[in-house]
Amino acid sequence: MSYLRTFLPWIIFAVIPSAQWQWAALAGLLVAAAVTVQQRLAGAGWDALIIETGSALYFAVLAAIAFADPHSGVRDYSATLSSAVLAVIAGGSLLIGKPFTLGIAKRTTPREFWTLKPFIRVNVIITSVWTAAFAVTAVALAVLAHGGHGHSTTSLIVQIAGFVVPMVFTVRYVAIVQARAPRAPQT
User: Fold this and answer.
1) Every domain of the chain and the residues it spans
2) What is the CA 38 to chain-centroid distance, rounded?
3) Is the pTM of this model over 0.70?
4) CA 24, 46, 100, 137: dihedral to nearest 10 degrees?
5) Cα–Cα distance between 35 and 74 in angstroms, integer?
6) Which pairs count as long-range contacts for 18-24, CB under 8 Å and 24+ apart, including other chains?
7) Is 152 helix (H, G, I), strand (E, B) or coil?
8) Chain segment 45-102, per-residue pLDDT in tens
9) Are 29 and 60 in contact (CB under 8 A)?
10) Which tens digits make up the pLDDT trace of 13-24?
11) N or C: which terminus of the chain has fewer CB atoms within 10 Å of its end residue's CB?
């Protein structure tokens, strides 16, 4: 559920018709801000809100552009830009040593595991997969947009796959890691 909440602004932006992109950007901004505030009030640290914070900033800029000029050329590449921004946010979190999935994982993992190298390594791998998925999605969407298919069903499918593939990987990879983890002796 954490990943769905984290990416809800992007999902909403993707499903609102592109002809209404300024409203989609505003909806993304409002949802990102609401999720961030709700999570902060629930006690989430900023390290668990890297994507949410970046999302709010991105959608604020995109909404300003979209409302200033609804016919801007940015509209045709807005899906591409969205995936590229997510790749930059996720990749940036790796570069600063704070993989965005680490904060999410801490919500359901006992504190004693947070500083262990295997826990951190798992999150580096998961964040790397998300980063790669966003980058590949951005490239695919750029090709579609350049070919005049930026607002097609194919584009929507690519956007959905850009979230579903890393989400499925995350769930399966975590299950594999947990299954292989040494068990504490029973007393």
Assistant:
1) 2-180
2) 17
3) yes
4) 10
5) 26
6) 18/75, 18/78, 18/79, 18/150, 18/151, 21/66, 21/70, 21/75, 21/78, 22/63, 22/66, 22/67, 22/70
7) coil
8) 888 888 899 999 999 999 999 999 999 989 889 889 999 999 999 999 999 999 999 9
9) yes
10) 888 887 788 999
11) C
Length of the chain equals 187
List of residues 6+ apart from 29 with CB closer than 8 A: 9, 56, 59, 60, 62, 63
Q: In terms of C-beta distances under 8 Å and separation of at least 24 residues, what long-range contacts does 2-6 make, across chains too?
A: 2/104, 2/107, 2/108, 3/104, 3/167, 3/170, 5/35, 5/39, 6/35, 6/51, 6/52, 6/104
137-143: long-range contacts, CB 8 A cutoff, minimum separation 24: 137/83, 137/87, 137/161, 137/162, 138/80, 138/81, 138/83, 138/84, 138/87, 141/77, 141/79, 141/80, 141/83, 142/77, 142/80
